[in-house]
Specification:
Order of helices and strands: HHEHHE
Largest sheet: 2 strands, parallel
Distance between the termini: 30 Å
Structural class: alpha+beta
Radius of gyration: 15 Å
Strand order of the largest sheet: 1-2
Shape: globular
Helix content: 40-55%
């Protein structure tokens, strides 16, 4: 978050590639970006459940499959505020 705030404060173009599975996790980033006048776009990438083992193999941070499965189960975009610019992309492999 500290680095994100610094990037926003300096007026840089910012892409926050983070695993935020709920609106509560997204909200601080959204608030900071909005406070600095950024036009925010939230993009959610979904992977089919049968592809989660492949996601585990490919991730760069050695996140175990069980953690990836838990994160996938926790993704909930139904409760995002309607004024948040949000789109969902189904990943392809």
């Amino acid at each position: 978050m500290k680095a994100f705030v610094e990037w926003c404060r300096n007026g840089n173009d910012v892409i926050c590639d983070n695993t935020n599975t709920t609106a509560v996790e997204i909200a601080p980033y959204y608030a900071v970006a909005a406070a600095y006048g950024y036009q925010v776009e939230i993009v959610t990438f979904y992977a089919p459940k049968d592809k989660l083992p492949l996601c585990a193999e490919r991730n760069r941070h050695s996140v175990p499959l069980k953690s990836i499965q838990r994160m996938a189960e926790n993704i909930d975009r139904r409760h995002l505020p309607h004024y948040w610019n949000h789109k969902v992309i189904q990943t392809t492999f």
